[in-house]
Amino acid sequence: MSKYKDYRAAKASVPEKAWAWNLYGAGLDSMGRNGEPELVDIPQPGPDQMLVRVDSVSLCFSDLKIIRLGSEHPKLYHRDMSIEPTRLGHETSLTVIEVGKNLQDRYKPGQFLAVQPDIYQNGMSTAYGYTVPGGLIQYHLIGPEVLVTDTGECLLPVEDEGMSYAGASLLEPWGCVLAAYTQRRRLVPKADGVMWILGQPGDETAYQFSQGFDAPAKVILTDIPQAVKLLVQQKGLDYEVRDGLSDEEFAELSERFTDGNGFDDIVVLDPRSAKRVSAAAKVIARRGTMNLVGKTPLDGLVELDLSRLHYDYISFMGNQTNDIAASYGEQRNRCELRGGGLAVMIGAGGPMGQMHVQRAIEQPDGPATIIATEVNASRLETLQDRFVPLAEAKGKTLEVVNPAEEEGRLNDLVMKFSDGRGADDVVVCVPVAQLMAEGSALMNSDGMLVLFAGVASGTMAPLDLSRVYLHNAQYTGTSGLTIEDQKLVLDRARENALSPELSVAAIGGMKTVKKAYQALIDGRFPGKIVIYPQFYDLPLLGLDELAVEIPEVAAKLGPGNSWTLEAEKALFAYCLSS
Questions:
Q1: Is there a single domain that holds both residue 303 and residue 364?
Q2: In this structure, what CATH number is given to the domain that contains residue 231?
């Protein structure tokens, strides 16, 4: 393993040229030159740059959207990719090779880094592996495009000999998973925002607002009880009354008072009509809230745009008391899986779904029982082989089920393990609106629905929002991550509370990248594909193929043919000796 140690210490000399996979437009045929990677010069870093070696890249389904859309991808801003190509690979681990003079107080040669790819500069969204060319290259420069951002440097020092290169590149997707259970919604009225209070004609309830009502800069009142109007007047808030509105006039009201951006906060008092709540939900601002306060169930299901729960972080909260403010705050609105409860993971066989299952199992105060669904046979087998033993070792129960094989089987399992109450948490890992709606129907009355997968804007589905104010149900979703989420993954890995490498299903070298993306499209491997760019000729291999192809590496795999640091060391010893 001495060669691995030398490699890790960056003792090897740097070649004059590096292999790279640039993307020149839409489609796999636009990747590379004549279907192959190309050799490019390795430049010297300037004073505000450093030269890094790319050690591993985990391929992501998000890459496929860039391949499909090319310059039409939102983060590429219609640039001419034939002249200014990008390079995929945002789940990346790096080693610092040479540091420009202005960065030498912060970085040093041999330093092991992971990339936080979600970058904002002057409020503009960019990203490493999108706008900024990413990691599918052997060596490249990093400068202000990654180091000078609205949130600081988008690099995470790993500095842990127990972390593999593959594990470091998986900090990004794992960070996204952990972010799904970290509060991202706004849970209090927005300071200086625009609030709309929508009442029920004839409601004479003596509502109060115990705290936080000083926040709005403007309040719009529609069909509210006199008690609420007096509250607004006593606080000295700027308000206007717009009574007698039809559902069809809500959009016009939003246009009038928010320039069509939506109300920052909507309070619905004594909600009765699902149709009316559906119409009001359409005019919630990004990161806005809807506070439902009442004691009577709605007369049906509410049609919601599921993409807004995932991408816009809109929040639905409520309570049954007369205190409007009782709905707000962290205590009332959970985002974590219920300890000792029942969690259902829908579409759990894909790479990200497996991470959710693994996290639920490894979470010390997490659910006692997890039901994981998958319709693909090979992925189902992976869930069974890899995670059932892990659950048993942690003293938990994992049930793996194909809901397509037997109608009603999933519902029966949920009822069995919950004593007929329903699941405490349902996490949907596939972008299918029907499954999201079906998942909500499996919930306990005070359960939580997590939409991890994003669907297209305007994708509507019926949800039971009566549960929000009658039983404190949660409907939530997240998109993306911060560097803090990656740090949390790293911390948990150091504590042996999480093993990022378990997500690896296949490995390959630089020459195989295009083939690897086709495998990703075809769903060939039941987990993440990790590319080691420094090894040009390493073939694309599923971990179950290593026993035949590279037996000395297979001998170091973990239970269920899982990737490990020792397996990676053996791989490097094999490749560096070839």
A1: no
A2: 3.40.50.720
The pTM score is 0.91
Q: Which domain holds residue 262?
A: 194-327
Asked whether residue 26 falls in the same domain as residue 158, the answer is: yes
- The token pair at 577 is 């000796």
Shared domain for 94 and 212, answered yes or no, is no
How many other C-beta atoms can be found within 10 angstroms of the C-beta atom of residue 381?
Answer: 14
Length of the chain: 578
For the segment 245-289, what is each residue's pLDDT rounded down to a tens digit? Answer: 999 999 999 999 999 999 999 999 999 999 999 999 999 999 999
Q: Are 156 and 113 in contact (CB under 8 A)?
A: yes
Tens digit of pLDDT for each residue in 494-550? 888 888 999 999 999 999 999 999 999 999 998 999 999 999 999 999 999 999 999
Residue 292 exposed, middle or buried by CB count within 10 Å (0-12, 13-18, 19+): buried
Within a domain: 534: yes
* 323 falls within a domain: yes
Give the number of C-alpha atoms closer than 13 A to the C-alpha of residue 226, restricted to the C-beta side.
Answer: 2
| Structure token digits, residue 253 | 């009201």
Q: How many CA atoms lie within 13 A of 176 on its CB side?
A: 25
The residues near 419 (Cβ < 8 Å, ≥ 6 apart) are: none
> Cβ neighbours of residue 217 under 8 Å, at least 6 residues apart?
192, 193, 194, 238
Q: Is residue 463 part of a domain?
A: no
Sign of the dihedral defined by the CA atoms of residues 79, 80, 86, 88, in that order: positive
